[in-house]
Amino acid sequence: MPTVLILGATSSIGRAVASELARQRRGLVLTGRDLEEVKAIASDLALRYQVKTCAREFDILAFERHAADLAASFLAAGDDLEGAVLCVGYYGGAEKDPAEAKRVADTNFTGCVLALNIMAEHFEKRRRGYICALSSVAGDRGREKNYLYGATKAGLSAYLQGLRQRLFRANVRVITIKPGFVDTPMTYGRAGIFLVASPESVGKSIAKAIESGKDVAYVPWFWRPIMFAVRLIPERIFKRTSL
Amino acid sequence: MSQLRYRSEKLSGWGRFPVEPCHLYRPEKRSDVRAILGSGQESSYIGRGLGRSYGDAALNRDAGTICPIRLNRFISFDERTAVLECECGVSLAEIIEYFLPRGFFLPVTPGTKFVTVGGAIAADVHGKNHHRDGTISGFLLDFRLLVSSGEVLACSRSENCGAFWATVGGMGLTGFILSARIRLRPVESAYVRVDHQRTHNLDETLNVMAETDDGYQFSVAWLDCLARADSLGRAVLIRGNHARAGDVPHTRGSPLSLPPRHRLKIPFDLPAWALNRAAVAAFNALYYRGHGDAARQLIDLERFFYPLDAVGNWNRLYGKRGLAQYQVVVPENGGRQALAALLQKLGSSHCAAFLAVLKRFGEGNPGLLSFPMRGYTLAVDLPVSRALGPFLHELDTIVLDCGGRVYLAKDAVMRPETFAASYRKLDQFREVKQKLDPNGLLSSSQARRLRIAG
Questions:
Q1: Per DSSP, what are the bridge partners of residue B380?
Q2: A19 — contact with chain B (CB < 8 Å)?
């Protein structure tokens, strides 16, 4: 059974992607920091879709353990490994708090990039497969409301662009996903959230983007024209707005 | 932490009356529920699944409601014993979706599949097979209950049995049900073989029910609430059994697959006058005539158990003011006269009843606040109006006088005195509640209205 590795399977989007892939008869290696939760999702999806799933611990902030933990996950998937999806992110919210700022940067950029480096090497050797990673529309333009989060995602998007070129030669696809607002704990109960998509619909869109051969996918699709327009606004006007 | 954020929402039950501002929490991980209950952020909390109770049972004005719809993971399933273990937020719809194709159905189901397992236990739901099989708790092996101290109790008939029988039907007031083990029913097909039979008055309806119910797993009567005089209590009896695999014609495909179903949505609130007496009377007369004593029919489980689920939000038919569902049980002894009195009042009131359903109940269970008892249960939908409260209190008197009671999952207007007088094991319930939740951390608008905790 073709098997997909999911990093961050306990996030709402991670769980939804895993669920959609299981529905499409993919085996799953699910990872996350909270092993009890990963196990709960793994056994749930195995019962629902009657596919093979397994749960592994992986903490994006434990940089020194990345290599060993990912090696174990690759081993669990074995030769059935079809691709990997990275659904890790931390919003924080308090830009000025140094500990919180470090955590946002370490989770969204440093941790993700280190893990992607290791995965890139593995897929490069196999000369097939895909790496799909969740960036964000917030990375398309810095905004007062979430510029630290946005900056880490912008960095991740740029990293993925370069990685895409590198792995193209190795026949490995790199897919950047840019979600808009999704109904997750990140947005739940927050003010100023609009056009909210359900994790289930986003999960389906991500699986479709993987299937269809896209390089960059906005989910839902309408964020592409929205962000296009937002990027067009000149900086000297943008700075006066509260967009 | 992020999971402690809530959404301020004006919530209501399925009847859309009353509407109250509540703080809605949505845990994503198992540990979130304990963090929310222990946060000290709210004066009290109540679980709220899919919001299908009608009144204020799952409302908590200006305080916490906890919605576990993302705690909806299946934990284990044993094909041999048909025992399913799942988290509280799993809906009955999900159980059907994933287990009916494997030959298992719900052992007991209410009239909608959009309820959570936690909610089904908290209301100790019953269905069309109560006369034979009792409530959902008869198939409940055990559950894990998070109590206000933060401790998780394993509750079953043998372990923490006081907490078990207080929680079954306990409207979420003893603690938060985290997960449960339920024994599903093996079935050969996704169909029911159904017989329809018309009766001409209440005596005939009750006699035929009593004489022939036992031959059917499922039995319910649709009642024409507006029929008067000699026709009072005329009904269409709808009774059936699970169909065998061989009963399903090959043209329908696999016997365990449900035929595709179109779902409608009501796009707007109907004006209040739309459901007037003439319209309802015409509908009822048509329905009664339309069902001859039809020959045996094969009806799929969805259409048989959930006819209204096909219309997404049928509660909008009752307009902005909403509806109240009034469901009562009257004991076998003296129940006949009480039913006649109730139907007379319903027939002559201005509150035209659209849907009325009558069913014979089997024995009750030891659940301290469990609703069913041996006798008859009557459920009617009534549009909310200013006159409704006093009208229902009049009906309450009839029910109370004959030793019956009102179903808490449907109730929105009952008085605390009526409640205390009709739920006979209330003192025992309060004792357990006091032990499990001494500070009243679990409470709802209904609990305060009825003074359930004392």
A1: B326, B356
A2: no
